[in-house]
Design brief:
Layout (H helix, E strand, L loop, with lengths): L2 E3 L2 H11 L6 E8 L4 H14 L5 E6 L2 E6 L7 E5 L6 H14 L9 E7 L6 E8 L6 H16 L28 H20 L17 E9 L1 H13 L4 H17 L7 E10 L17 E10 L5 H17 L2 H18 L8 E9 L4 E2 L2 E10 L8 E8 L2 E10 L4 H17 L3
Parallel strand pairs: 5-6, 9-11, 11-14
Antiparallel strand pairs: 1-4, 2-7, 2-13, 3-4, 6-7, 8-15, 9-10, 12-13, 14-15
Helix pairs in contact: 1-9, 2-4, 5-9, 7-8, 7-10
Amino acid sequence: MPGRFLTPTESATEVLTRQQGTLNILTISCLRGSLDRQRFQNALTVLQAQHPHLQSRILPGLGGYCLRYGGASPIPWRIIPLTEETQPQAQLDAAIDHELNTPIASQTCLMRCVLLWSPPPGNLHYLLTTIHHGIADGLSAIYLQQAILTIYAQRPSPAPTLPRSTARLYSTADCLPSELCGISGIVKTLSYFPQFLTQRLQHLDRFPTQQWVPVSERRCGWLRKTLSPTQTQALVQQSRQEQTTMQGVLCAALLQTMAKQLIHTGKTSLGVACSSFVDLRKRGEPHRVPSELGMFAGFIPSFHHLTRDSDIWAIARDVHQQLRQGLAQQVMFKTLGMSGWVIEQELYSPDQLNFPLNVTNVGQLNLPSQYGELELEDIAFLPSNSILSGSILVAVTTYRDRMVLYFAASMPSIQPASLANFSQQVMQTLQMYSA
């Protein structure tokens, strides 16, 4: 298993990484209980031995970038001691900011960890795992962190000796349905592009760029928001009554907020595009499982004409209907074939084709809460959005019935105050319908 070439989409993430941009995926969890640092290091060693992607590096080759098996360094990790005097929340926020805005050293290892550790008698810890987007998506990044906790609970030996993994280095191409493989699949994917481009050019309204800088100078700004279990359940029930889905209402809350912010005197409507990310694991051939590393996510665009008075439930049903049509037409696989090109356009014609609004929602996670003496209180993920100028990404995770929403934007194109105002209005809308 020497390795393989990256697919175009995977390769695009590496191109931007080498331009000092970041498309990292960060998973953040809160743990309660006694945590032994040596056992944690042993768990990382076992994890790396189980996953060939984590034993691999990304290197340049004659035909493009290669995922080369072997030669990776041990998974780098660092400890940040937490004490009341050091303001744990400020330390956590600083660590998240650093992980989102520091490129992965892909030529050495494709993952790294930060453990914010409370020395005894403290028992509250935070685990941050950062992984290269070329080998993972949000769901596989979450399950990778769960694997660390599962191994930790098994009390791995101080110096585990494990055989090298024989699993494949799966790629985005390993989830394509048969009718989209080969020459005929390429033709079908290319045939969708004119339709996509026509619709995109008719829906070009976007957030005004407050300050433009090159890719290498952009940073990912972020905010965390939550809905309580009671609010989350109420919103789910209301969505069902309105004959839509949580994905529909999440997109609708963003779209309605954008319309209210951008439609002023003299402008009566907006033409807006929104992207919804779709898990491909059970829609391709063969089915993949979340514990397998890989970028198994595509997106379906939805296009909307909005006014300040657009009803949120009408928008949500429109999103839901467009997503159903997209699923039936396998749009998420066709956009997967285009997304590498769209990402790379940020280097050559910045800010022209990216979507102003993006929602990635992994839904309800059915993960155990207990791992030996550790309790998993909270887990969520956040892809870095440092690259896409003028674009807001919302990453949604529901665990133990509580919904966590991370809002992320490329700064300084969107200023911190603007992101804070936008997220506040979105949450007010969601809370209004979850009371």
